[in-house]
Design a protein that fits this description.
By secondary structure, the protein is of the alpha+beta class. It folds into two domains: 128 residues, Pathogenesis-related Protein p14a (3-Layer(aba) Sandwich), CATH 3.40.33.10; 124 residues, 3-Layer(aba) Sandwich (Pathogenesis-related Protein p14a), CATH 3.40.33. The chain has ten helices and nine strands. Strands 5, 6, 7, 8 and 9 form a five-stranded mixed beta sheet that branches. A four-stranded mixed beta sheet has the order 1-3-4-2, with helices on both faces. A hairpin with a 5-residue loop joins strand 3 and strand 4. Helix 1 runs parallel beside helix 4 and helix 6 crosses helix 9.
Length: 271
């Protein structure tokens, strides 16, 4: 049984319910999900014991990462049903207290499911509203780590050496802030950035890699693997470029935004 898939199924069902009530959809957080999985595993270890024991401790751990204004938690257990996720969500909807949590004024959520040795499934969902609007901050070490890994990979494959450029990095930061506001990213979304680059540099080639994702550990590996497994992004990473800049932004619930500009200048001055 794939518990990750079941967690996503519950997440989608809860959001569908909220949308049916004209409420905003919740955003997934791996940080919250990790606490949910821990609690579900604890319940599974005690066989059919359903409780909110340790809720305050879970909140304290999350407060190390998230500035929390309000939070709530739903738990459930079922065994031997054809559709365990639907059974859990339906049970919550039919319970006034659980339904109030599902309909609450929250922005972020995570879900954790565990299974005991008898096949019983234990569900935990935590809902959180942050104390203030989440803002994205620069993550300089992530930017440099992504650049270092791409540079080493290009050298190992005898590709053109690529240099890091702070001006392109600044353009990437502004680009990230702009792209985050768009529902769909396409070539037209980059036109303003291209115009800004053209005002500064003469170039014969330009490309962009962009990624928005949620991760707890190794965000650089998420970026590199995602780009290398996408045909267009892979071509950019390994393309005939000699200048680059990267911006990596992150918030306090594990969301990341990364933009890299690849540029081919016919003449590069020595640093």
């Amino acid at each position: 049984m794939n518990l990750d898939s079941l967690e996503q199924e519950v997440f989608n069902s809860v959001n569908q319910y909220r949308l049916s009530r004209n409420l905003g959809g919740l955003q997934w957080s791996d940080l919250i999900a990790a606490q949910c999985r821990g609690h579900s595993s604890d319940m599974a270890a005690n066989f059919q014991t359903i409780s909110h024991a340790g809720f305050e401790q879970r909140m304290e751990r999350l407060k190390n990462e998230i500035n929390i204004s309000s939070a709530s938690e739903n738990v459930a257990y079922n065994l031997g049903v054809n559709d365990p996720c639907s059974a859990a969500v339906t049970g919550w909807i039919n319970s006034p207290g659980h339904r109030a949590n599902m309909e609450g004024d929250y922005l972020f959520t995570g879900i954790g499911i565990a299974q005991d040795s008898g096949g019983g499934l234990y569900f935990t969902q935590i809902f959180i509203f942050p104390a203030k609007e989440v803002s994205f901050l620069k993550h300089d070490s992530l930017s440099r780590l992504i650049f270092t890994r791409i540079k080493k990979m290009r050298l190992s494959e005898n590709l053109t050496a690529i240099k890091y450029d702070r001006i392109l990095e600044d353009l990437c930061i502004r680009g990230c802030e702009m792209l985050m506001e768009l529902q769909q990213i396409n070539r037209n979304a980059y036109e303003d950035i291209i115009d800004e680059v053209a005002d500064i540099y003469g170039f014969s080639g330009i490309a962009f890699n962009y990624l928005k994702f949620n991760a707890v550990e190794n965000p650089d590996s998420v970026v590199i693997s995602t780009w290398l497994n996408n045909d267009e992004n892979n071509r950019n990473v390994k393309g005939d470029f000699n200048l680059t800049g990267i911006a990596a932004l992150h918030d306090n619930v594990g969301n990341y935004v990364v933009l890299e500009i690849f540029l081919r200048r016919d003449t590069l001055l020595s640093p």
